[in-house]
Every structure is written in C-alpha cells, then in structure tokens.
Fold this protein.
Amino acid sequence: MSLTREEIEKVALLARLRLSPDELETMTVQLSQIVEYVEQLSELDTESV
Amino acid sequence: MSIIHMSATELLALLDAAELTSVEVVLAFLDQIESHDAEIKAFIHVHTDAAVARAEEIDGRRAAGQPVGKLGGLPVAVKDVVCIRDELTTCASRMLEGFRPPYDATVVEKLRAAGAVLLGKTNMDEFAMGGSCENSAFFPTHNPWDTERIPGGSSGGAAACVAARMAPLSIGSDTGGSIRQPAGACGVVGMKPTYGRVSRYGLVAFASSLDQIGPLAATVEDAALLLEVIAGPDPRDSTSIDQGVPAFSAAVARPLEGLRLGLVREHFGEGLDGEVEAAVREAIRVYEALGATIKDISLPHSKYAIATYYIIAPCEASSNLARYDGAHYGYRTNLKEMREDPGGSLVGMYRQTRAEGFGAEVKRRVMLGTYALSAGYYDAYYLKALKVRRLIAQDYIDAFKDVDLILGPVSPTPAFKIGDKINDPLSMYLVDLYTVSANLAGVAGISVPCGFSSGGLPIGLQLQSPPLEEERLLRAAYMFQQATDWYRRRPPCVDGPN
C-alpha cells in the first residue's frame, strides 16, 4: 500500500518531526515499501489469538 | 602468549596467581586501542585515566588479600547505550551528544561490584537501530577482519573491540539480533539472554519488550562468566525475572549427553549464502560426532518474523524516543526562526530539535511506529503484530517439546561492505531474519564462530534455547568450541600468533 505525501506529513506532525522536502520524498517511498512488506501479516488468521 | 591474546578466564587465573597485575593488563589493552582503534573505530570514548586508576585500586585490594570480585581487574568495554554515571552516554546520537547520566545502570553497578575495570563506551547504530553500525551519528565502526566491511550492528563496536583484542569482554544490547549478528560478523561469541534475565535499568530503551543486555567475549567460558555477573532480578526493572542466577561459569565445561538439536527447515531456504550454509552443515557434523542427534523442525511463522518485528520495534521506539524533545535532555535546536510552526512554537521546537538530533534510520523507525500506532491503523498493524508475535512464541514452545536447542545460521551472509545496503532499508532489515524471532519469543540465543568464508570473513552459528536455559545453551556452545578451533583465529590486523 502506497502512502501519500500528505499522510507522511501528517505522521511527521504526530511524530514531532520536521522533514525537509527531500526527506519527505524519500520517506514517502521508503515507508511505502516497508508498510507494503509488513502488510503480509494480514495473510494470517489471528481470530483465536 | 601476550596479554591481549589471552581469554578473560586465563587472565583472571594469572591475576589471582599474582603473575600479572591489573594495571599491566589494562595498559596492554589500552595500548591495543591506541594502535588499532584509529582504523577500527570501535570506541566512542576511552576512559584511560579512570581505567588505570581503577586497575591500581584493584591491584591494591588483591595485594592486601581483600576480595576483588569475579571479574577482579579485568577490563570490560560497554556499548554506549548503557548508562555509566557522569560519563558521556550518547547512544551514538547527536540527541545525547553531551549527556552524562546521573546514575549507573544496574549492569554497571554489578560490573563495578565484581571488580571490573570499565574501559570505555563502544560505538553502535544510533539508539540501537541498525544492523551495520553505519547509523552511528559519529562514524562507522570497521570490521577488524576486513576494514571495508561492516562489523555488524547495532553492537558493532562491542563486537569489533573484542575481535581486535582491544578488550577481553564487552557488554552489548540485543533487540532484534544486535549482539548475535555482530558477534557472528566479527568472529566472537555473543549472547542474548532470556528476556528478563538481565536488568534493563539504565539501558537506554529502544523497544522495551524486546531489549536485552548481554555479553560478548572471545570464548564461551568468558561469556558465561560475564553473564553470571550481570544477570539477576532487579526491583528497579519490573520485567526482570525473579529467579536466581545459575553458576554459569562453573557449569559451562560440563558436556551435555544426548543433546537433541533442531534444524529449522524454514531457515535453510532462499537468501542463505552457500558458504554460510556449508559452515553450518559442517557444525552439524561436529555436533553429531559429539553424540548429538539432529531433528528437522519447523517454526511455521518464521517468514512473518521480520514483518512482526518491524512493526512492534518501531512502535515501541516511537513511544520510547518521545522523551527526546529538546526539553528533557541536552540537545535543543538553536534555530529560533525554525521554531515557528503551525502547531505553535513549542511544537516547532520539538519538531526542529528532533529533525536535527535524530539520524535517518531513527526518523524512519519513529515515523513507521507512529503510523502503525495511529488511529485507524493501530488494529491492522500493531495489534495484528502482537497477535502474530504470540503465534511465533507458540512455534518455539511447540518446537522445544521435541528438541533441547535450535541450531542454525546467525546471518544469511558474512559481513557486507560498508555502504552496500545503506540506501535500501528493507534489504538491511532482512539481514535480521534469523535473529528477530528470539527477541519476539523472549528465548535465549548465542552466536559462536563456526568457520570462515572463502574471503576470510567469519561465519556465526546460532543456538537458541527455551527461556531460562542459558546454562544448556552455554554448555552446548562450549562443547562445539572445544571440538573446533575457529575461536582461536585472529583478524590480520591483530599482531601475534594465529
């Protein structure tokens, strides 16, 4: 799932971080990749956990 | 054999027999630091004067027949994530650049009570986030076996200083493999105890449900001795386990009969370097010759371990690192005009301080954790990860019904070159694939040297035990060590017989 630049900006505010335009760019790409990777957990049935 | 080539156990025997003084020992290691650390850069701070003074004090006590403790006079290096009172403790971050804690961590108190000589603070990935020591805000540490390569991380300095014989013992921390992986990369012994075995009081928190302090050393018996000193319940750490510390150093040399070792079939698949696999398979043969039986086992949720870890750890980190705000600790931004923020000047001060104080990896993980904990995403990410963590822990419980210990590689490849993965965070995270599960499940794990790549780089063998079975782990590791001689080899930069 790709994160939008807007979402990244919102998260940066929550995280109390100020990101430069370059950092925002890179962060959007990298976090999208990582979030896409961790989303595989949704494959698992954890109803009974 | 010169002082720096001896094990801690050997040095202790000579110290006790008055054939060496602690001052001689400490000076020998300080000398080694002096001559090699410009190249290796394992240390952020070296406590030269304090170490010599302490050594003199211990020598005085010994000469007067007073007790000197289990580590009496031995130098110990400490990862810069552990608080030593009034000494710079930076976590390799600009955020804590001038920070001097007002207290000693429990492990430091225990080291002092045991007569250890604190040598200095070792380099690490910033706030323990990383697997290469490249994320230090100050400088990267270099692998003593090939200085163009990483020493591993985040306890890279602690592993490198032992490998390069700049200290016989060091203290590291392991949240997702940060002791075991650098130990493997540097050809030394490194252990993550059971979660709760060693107090985290005074350990700067990264991920509180995963962090553990542990020993690094050149030999298994040395690691056992150091673990014995630092372990134990602590009322100041409510997650520490209320159990006495077994006499690890006395037990370590007793072999185990009928040892049942499990090989995790999911760990021998894609991504595992051929030479690493060959070294591990050779280690299996060594164990079989020692009378162990090998069983093929499964940890079915293995493939989800990295995803689980890289949700939980960043989430906990985002919470733990919230305290670094320019108000509680030393660093605060000076850029007055940058404090202006739609959220107000206080928010602006926080944001700018953290922008300047934190490095890229820390920011990445704080952002990831904040995202995964935020409203609307908490259930899908953090809560889900907690549930999968439970499944991973259950995999271990099931596996340990049939085997005594789990055996396998500690890293998928030997040490890579500095710079290779720095622009690809996800590929860097995947380096942890064999180590994160132990932290998620709370079990103990150790890395011991088991061979070298054709390029002369160390390969580490990992053993994992059920919770609180460190004695079993150490005894099994010792059996392997005594049947091989990988641990005797030294990096080319270290002078002396090989």
